[in-house]
Structures are given as structure tokens and as C-alpha cells.
Automatic annotation (TrEMBL):
It holds the Pfam family Adenine_glyco. This is 3-methyladenine DNA glycosylase. InterPro entries: Adenine_glyco (IPR005019), DNA-3mA_glycosylase (IPR052891), DNA_glycosylase (IPR011257). One of its GO terms (molecular function) is metal ion binding. The lineage of its organism: Bacteria, Bacillati, Actinomycetota, Actinomycetes, Bifidobacteriales. Its EC number is 3.2.2.20.
Length: 184
């Protein structure tokens, strides 16, 4: 958990594959502990071709056979809706490319390409969703993404470094943190 916090969570990520992985893992985490997801991360990488979203999108061509195999895989979280969402989201990411956009450019456009830095005094004060995540969730669903409600989207914003919610006193918190966006 410490390595994930210190080396990944909240670090600006612009890599399409890594962003797809974060989105997929945030979907899997919904309703569960992050520790559970991290312990299953290697198995998810194996099941989803290291989160190569082109290959994951192709999995949907044999949805029944693929789903049977995924649901039989005790090493991953076996929630049909979440698994179907990962494959649908891979297709949405591929569709973005066909429109001349990358997944990174698409996601970062919601924050105008610049991380939003919050002044977090205590982590208990961090919201589950914000106006930004609600707007982003609506747009993502319109663009073919699934299981991307405001809470999952806000978790993605945090994990990918689009929003810096590191608590004051954390070495990753913004220097002299001042709110650049009200937390709602």
C-alpha cells in the first residue's frame, strides 16, 4: 500500500495503457477495499493482456467464451457487470483513437491538461465526488464508457494525478497548498 501511495497514486499519468489500467482497477474497486484490488492486480494484468485496450476490446468478439473464463478465474474479482464494463471501456478507448484522440488527451481535457491541487487538511475531508467528477461521468457515459459514475471517476482523477488530494504533511502534497478548485 505504501509503495502504491508513494510511487503511483496521485502522480500525473499520461500513458494511455496505464490510464486504462487505472480506470479498470477503479471500477473493480467500487464497493471493495483498494487493498483487495492491489492484491489482485497481477491477475487482472494477466486476464486483460496487461491492459492493452486494443486486445481487451477484441475480447468482446467472443463475449460468452471470454466471460466464462473470467468468471471462473478465482484470482480476479468476478463481477460480471464490472468485467463487461472493462471490455466496453476498451472499445470506447479504441473509438476515441478512431476519432483522432488519445485516451490521455480525452481524460486530461476535463482538467485542461493541468492537475488540480487541493489543500487537504485531513483525508476524512476528501469528497467521494465533485462537480467535476459528475460532469466527467456524464460525458464519459455519453461517449460509451460504462461503470463510470462520479465516485469511480473521482477516484480515477485522484489516482492518475489529475487531482492532487495528498494530505498536508504528505511529501506529495502541493507546496503551500491552496485550493484551486472548491471541494464540493
Amino acid at each position: 500500500m505504501r509503495a502504491y501511495h508513494d510511487d503511483e497514486w496521485g502522480t500525473a499519468c499520461h500513458d494511455d495503457r496505464a490510464l486504462f489500467e487505472l480506470l479498470s482497477l477503479e471500477i473493480m474497486q467500487a464497493g471493495l477495499s483498494w487493498r483487495t484490488v492491489l492484491h489482485k492486480r497481477a491477475a487482472f494484468r494477466a486476464a486483460f493482456h496487461d491492459f492493452d485496450y486494443h486486445r481487451v476490446a477484441a475480447m468482446a468478439d467472443d463475449m460468452d467464451g471470454v466471460m466464462d473464463g473470467l468468471l471462473a478465474n478465482a484470482a480476479i474479482i468476478r463481477n460480471r457487470r464490472k468485467l463487461e464494463a472493462v471490455m466496453a471501456n476498451a472499445g470506447a478507448a479504441v473509438a476515441l483513437e478512431k476519432d483522432g484522440r488519445t485516451l490521455s488527451a480525452y481524460l486530461w481535457s476535463f482538467v485542461d491538461g493541468t492537475p488540480i491541487e487541493h489543500d487537504i487538511v485531513r483525508h476524512e475531508g476528501v469528497p467521494c465526488s465533485t462537480e467535476l467528477s459528475r460532469t466527467m461521468a456524464t460525458t464519459m457515459r455519453r461517449d460509451g464508457f460504462r461503470f463510470t459514475g462520479p465516485v469511480v471517476v473521482y477516484s480515477l482523477l485522484q489516482a492518475s494525478g489529475m487531482v492532487n488530494d495528498h494530505e498536508r504533511g504528505c511529501f506529495l502534497a502541493p507546496e503551500g497548498a491552496e485550493r484551486t478548485e472548491p471541494i464540493q
